[in-house]
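Help! Submission page says 'invalid entity' but I think these are all valid:
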Amino acid sequence: MDTVITDKRPEDTAGYCVYCNRIVARDEAAGCARAGHAPDAVRGLLDLQSGGSLPTPLPRMNWAAALMPPVWGVAHGAWAGVLAFPLWLFLDSALQAAAHMPATVPTTGHIIVWSGASVLALGTIAFMYWFGFRGWGVAFRRRYDTGLGVLPYPQFLKQERRWAWLCVPLFIVVMALAIAWWLR
Ligand SMILES: [Zn+2]
């Protein structure tokens, strides 16, 4: 918030609270009016609407971020998204290994390999879910952390939504290819 210069009273503004993971009103001390989080946690500067109501909330799930972390992440400076690649490859190998285990392997062996593959699958889904769950906040901060008037907020919502038009079809194509590869 250091770079934001404004003559507005904090309680007339809203921002994204990194702990609440949503747009919140500011209190008189510029902190989070929703749950009392410190001013540092509330990023970006939006006007409260007339009557003090909050701007349009950020959507809960950023599907572009959730389904295509590498593509969305690189474009949004969230480089951890690239980790989805090795996760997908490991998961694919683990599932292949589990599915193609010779029948001569004892049952315990099958259980261990399938358990490993399941844990990896759950971990991958959790990673993608987390990315989608925090995605709108990441995009908001990237756009508004640096200062005022970069882009009107409704424009930002519209622009960020467009990422779904790239990432959702891309995810479907990747899934289709993976399934075709499996069934070949
Ligand atoms: Zn908060």
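Support: the input was valid. A stray whitespace character was the problem, and the output above is from the cleaned input. The beta strands are 13-17, 22-25, 42-47.
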